[in-house]
Structure formats: structure tokens, C-alpha cells
Design goal:
With about 725 residues, the protein is an alpha/beta fold. It contains 18 helices and 26 strands. It folds into three domains: about 160 residues, no CATH class; about 240 residues, Rossmann fold; about 120 residues, Sandwich (Immunoglobulin-like), CATH 2.60.40. About 25% of the residues lie in helices and about 20% in strands. It binds alpha-D-glucopyranose.
Amino acid sequence: MSIRYILVFVLGVCSIGLFAQKAVYLDVYKPIEERVEDALQRMTIEEKVAMLHAQSKFSSAGVPRLGIPDNWATDGPHGIRSEALWDEWDDAKWTNDSCIAFPALTCLAATWNPQMAALYGKSIGEEARYRNKNILLGPGVNMYRTPLNGRNFEYMGEDPFLASRMVVPYVQEVQKNGVAACVKHFALNNQEVQRWDVDVVVDNRALHEIYLPAFKAAVTEGGAWAIMGAYNKYKGQHCCHNQYLLNDILKNEWKFDGVVVSDWGGTHDTWESVHNGLDMEFGTWTDGLGAGASNAYANYFLSDSYLQLLKEGKVGQEELNDKVRRILRMVFRTTMVKKRPFGSFGTVEHALVGRKVAEEGIVLLQNRNILPVDLVKVKKILVVGDNAVRRMTIGGGSSALKAKYEVSPLQGILKRVADLAEVNYVVGYEAPPYGVKETKVDRAPLRKQAVEAAKEADVVFFIGGLNKNGNQDCEGDDRRSYHLPYEQDQLIEELVTVNPNVVVVIISGNAVAMPWVNKVPAVLEAWYGGTEGGNALASILFGDVNPSGKLPFTIPVKLEDCPAHAFDERTYPGDGKSVVYSESIFTGYRWADKLKKVKPLFAFGHGLSYTTFQYDNFRANKRILNDGQTITFSVKVKNTGLREGKEVVQLYISDKKSSLPRPVKELKGFVKVALKPGEEKDVTITIGKEELSYFNDVNHEWVAEPGKFEAIIAASAIEIKGKLDFELR
Ligand code: GLC
């Protein structure tokens, strides 16, 4: 080879080497922190500031000059929201963005099955990836404090341990698709009333033992790459730029290295945003005219006003560089990651995942030998209720979806029954369509029609509950009553006067009052089941699937039995400025245990099966636990019925003597086990010091005090199967 060729070759290698050596941030094989530093030092101050705030309703700027793509966020926790217009909330009306709607997160939590959470996260992550979004605005893990909260359906129930175990696999699997899970709303967003600025007053123990754990698990175990600040305030500061929550806890204590994203319109101040941990600002309505029809992005708090402070030297670049590092880290984990997967969208596989989650999440609350319906004997079925035909993937606020399809309960029942029986339908009660205000109507004629029809039926499926209209299960406001709307209670009472075989199916994301519960043979909580919801419900009603869901929250008999409603207005909904969590750590079943006389209608962790289970031989591998050791509890669970089923074995821990008040017991372990008829399995749960600890707010540390503890094995918070004393030394 001539000298010339050799020279060209050497020059070529050097220049590639030089360029390659120069463009570290583009090298997917380089350590991410090296890529971050390399990109950072190439960016101008204008490019850095542009990255911190929205440029459209759901996107923020990358660095075109450096080939760093824009960041694209999408709602929501239950599926990939349809494309919005560049600068509006309105739909862009694309023809290829109809997604699979997965069940609501209360349903996922009700599966008590982390494998379902993993499947769910994988599937929704694939859909987000395919739609080229690199930030999924979900999941939500705010604790269920009142059954009136309009957004509980987007969250994972009342218990921090259950929500923690379920959020981790969801986050991990979403992120394997090169999509950042943006866990929300951090923190204390437990009501929609005055959500924009209610100042939550809560003691440190409740904050750390009840309201933060699921976020902490998502970050420290799930490795979440993004967190969304909540609208409300804490310690008088908006959560989107809150020194204590974002800097002290999230970034310093939990070592969160991801991005804090504001909620849309949750940013209110430049100085606080710069210094109190906000990294990306979205949805700000700086024109002060309300919900942003047209946002002037230059007026954002982290836009021109921040740039000006920087240029005038009134703020240093330290905070700016930290924000940009976090965003670049997210970019190199998502849009510029090595081996970025391709995702998939609207697939049969995803629809079947949704169906599986719905089938595993439906909770059989009560069943006096009427379910599953035997189509050999039952020949005339009446379906009653607006929720039997109502689309539930629309409405509800930002979690609304343009679903590829949605099987309604009636469709599911008709498909499953086919020609095996006659199925008739009457609406029974009038409910206005989504977005239409409720007006006073005379519902007696519809009730009369339903009662007449019920006389002829072998079985009546009453399918009611709540819906995604305002003041029901909907973002932006709370329910105004614990009772079912549209006079459903009266309709159920009238139906049972003419037909004893009324199965009540509640479709909701919240507990509801059930004054008729002793007059009906069966009650199910079927949640918002998503695209395949109707088929999942039919599978349960006719016994193709044995129900195995367990309640992720307590269903009180009456609202006053709920701790948030056991005090005064200040405890809920607040006095217009603040809301005081007077119940402290005694939320949900912890409250019922504390008050003893308050018996729930249906307990946390409750759920029946079409088979029965027997627990035997509850034991531990030791009775003295020394510091640093673990203790393993075992129990034999046998399927004593005639069909296969799944049981959720729950472990609660009781601290028999503590220097600070503690709940009677707290969930600290659970295992969902599948058993064939007659099959018996040994279920084991291992815990350590962490599960025995409480948060000492004086020393700001988790403490497991030596002394006596009790392990309680149970099938719900009140169905105790065995107790064991043990001692921590
Ligand atoms: C909404 C919600 C948040 C959502 C965001 C974008 O107001 O609070 O959950 O992700 O705005 O739609």
C-alpha cells in the first residue's frame, strides 16, 4: 500500500479518534456521568435555561446544535394519552394514537401481586416508547386518606407497604423501555379540594411512616428517573419548589439523581424554583388568566426571568448546572440510551395484560352462594345500571384516554353468555354523560321499569358505582357524598323487593356506602377495568376466573368512621388555607384498630374466593431476633375447596411496647400463592429490623426498639389466622 494511502488512513483514524474523543456525550458506551459532563460544558447558558421549561404543552427543549433531542412527557398512569395540540389541552386528533387502556391503579394494587405490577409497567412502558415519549407522567402513589378524594382511582390504596411493593416493579419495567417513570404527586396530594394551594399540616411521623414510603421505594428501590411535584403546599411552600421535600428529603437524604418535574401549573416563583429543587417547569399559566390556552414560555419562572438573574450575576450557575445535569442524565437514560428498545402500541398482548390485571384485581366482597353464576341453571339474566354500558376510559381528568376499544360490562356479559341464556338490559338510573352537569331528574320511571324487568329474571346484575364525572372519581374536585349518586341505593332496595338474586357490581376507584349490603347475596368491587374490563368482569361472574383481589383500602360503614372525617372541617377538607391531618399515623385500618369499636364494612386486605383456604402451623425460625438478623415466618396454606384459586397471605407486625404511640399492627409482608384443589404450600415471609421500625421524629431516624413484638398472619386486616410473639434484642 503506498505511503499516500497509509497517510490518509492514519489521518482518518486520528480525526475519528479526535472527534470521538471530542464527542464523549454522543458515545453510548461511555459512562453516563462522563457524557453528562461533556455535554454540559458544551452548552451555552441560553441552551441550559431552555432545557428547564416547557416549549409546548408536553415537551421541553433539547439542544438541536448538539443533537440532543427534545424531552416529551405523556400522561398517564393507566395508558398513553392521545396527542395534544402543540400548545393546547385539546386533542390533535391523530389517527394512530388510540392506546390500550390499562386498569386503574387501585385495581392494580388490589391484585396484591408485584408480578402484575411488573407486567403493567412493561406494557405501558412499551406503549410510551412506541409513541416516542421519554417521560411517563405516572404512576401515582399518594395515600388514600379519604374516600371522597377524586383521584384515589389513580393511586394504590391506603397502606404504604402495599403501595411500596407495587410501585417498584412498575417503575423498573417502565424504565427498561428507555422511558422515565415520573412518580407523582410528591407529596401529600390526598385531596382535590383546594389542590392548587392547600397547605398540608401533618406531623413528621405520619409524613415519613405513611405519606413518603411509596415515593421513597420508587426512588431508592425502583430507581425512578423522575418525580412530579404536587400542587399543594407543605410547610407553607408549594411542593413543586419545596426545600424540605425536594432538597432535604428527596435529593439529599434519598440521593435522588433524577429530574423533579412540576405539575402542570404547579410553579409559582422563580427564586424558590431555582433554589428549592425544581428542575423542569411545565404548564405554567404565567398570563394569570387561568388554565393556559396559550402559554408564553418566555414568561415561565425558569425562563427569561431566571436567565436574567444569571446574566446579572444575581444567582450563580451551580443550581442551573445541577438541573441540567439531571435532565441530561435522563436524556442519556432514555432518548440517547444504548440499545433503545422500539416499544409496541395498542397490541393484543397489552390488552391481555390489562385483562389479566383486571381479573386479578376484582374483589369479591360478599357472596352468599350465588356466584359464580351457573349458566346451566340460570336462563334469564337482567343487567341493570348505567355503569354496565358507560365508557370509563374517558373523563376523570388527565388520566383520560383515547382507548383503541373498551369492552363494557354489558358487552362482556353478552359475549360470555352468548346463546346460553337470555340477557336483557335496562339502565335503571340516569347519569349525565361525562362533562354534563347533573340536573334534578325524576328517576322513578326508570326504577319502575327496572323493577318490572327484575321480576322475570333468574339473576339480576346491578352494575353501578361512581363514574369519571366531576365530583366523582375525577381530578380537580372531590366527591360531595360517601353515598352512591343518582339514587342507586333506592334502586337496589327496590330491586331486592322483587328479586332476591341481585348481584351488585360496584365500578369505582373509591369506597362507597352500602346501606343495602345485608339485603343482597353478592357484592363485587370491579374498579375501572380499562380496555378489557367488561371481559374480565364476565370471567369472574361466570367463574372462568376465580377472584383473588383484595381491598387496597378500608370500606367504612359510614364516612364518620374514616379518620379524616372523625374530627372537624380542618381535618377535611380544611379551612380554605390549610388542612390538618389530625389522625396522624392512624390512617385506614390503623384507625379502625385504634378505635376498636369501629368495625369496617369490608376490611383492608379483604377479598373472597370461589374456593376456601386453610392456614396451619404458623411458625418462625427463631423467637429472639438479634440486631442485624432477619426472622422468617412460615405458614401452611391449603386449598380446601373444589377449584383452583389464589390467596394473599398477609403478615402484620405489632410492637407490643414502644416509647412512642404506634398502630396496633401494620402490614409488613404479603405473598400471593396459587393453589390447586387440595394443594398445600408453605408460604414464607422474611423480615428484618426495617420492618420493625418506626420513625423517631425527634432524632429524625428510623428506630426498631428492642422488646416484644407480635407477628400476625392474616387473610385481611381483621381475618386473623395466627399470632406469634417474638423479641428483638
Ligand atoms: C394534571 C395532573 C397531573 C398530570 C398533569 C399533566 O393537572 O395533576 O397528574 O400529569 O397535569 O396533564
